[in-house]
Amino acid sequence: MGKFKINIKNGCYVLNKRENPKWRLLIAEGMGKEEGEIIRLHPLEVSYLILKRRVDESHTRLDLEEIIYAECTKDKEFMTKFITYLDLRERGFPIKVSGPSPIVFEVYDRGADVSVETSRRYLMVVHAEKSIGIETLSTALEMAKRDDKDLVLAIVDQDGDIVYYKVDTALKFQVSIKLRKSRGI
Description:
By secondary structure, this protein is of the alpha+beta class. It is about 30% helix and about 25% strand.
């Protein structure tokens, strides 16, 4: 597999199609967003490519530790997202970095061609020691149902172990309290 030449332009990671004749491989794997003659890559994707030695080091010196450090200062959950991204890639799932929040990734079936097929699930990444609001979960579930996808939670513990849960419903209810003036106390 060829190595890719990645550049940094205006603080973004980009891949020039002319310099990278095998750029379609990245698109088929779900990486990057095409913008004319370039492909814009997310820092998670660049980190993965560096880790897998798929970046041409002689072209641009990209340091994995520096990228992770810089991204962790911007996004406190970057490492948790990266661990999840790496885990899903290692399991053979094509994955796209997604937005809008709270959805982090779109996950495709194993062997799917991302350029032709549609994703089957949205994925939220949650650190095991942190809580998630029911409103956030409900919003993500509504987004998934609207787009006819499953919602999956990736719960990442302090050791980097991940458990995936499919979410079918988010129980929301309203609580009302009647206050009465107390005569005693």
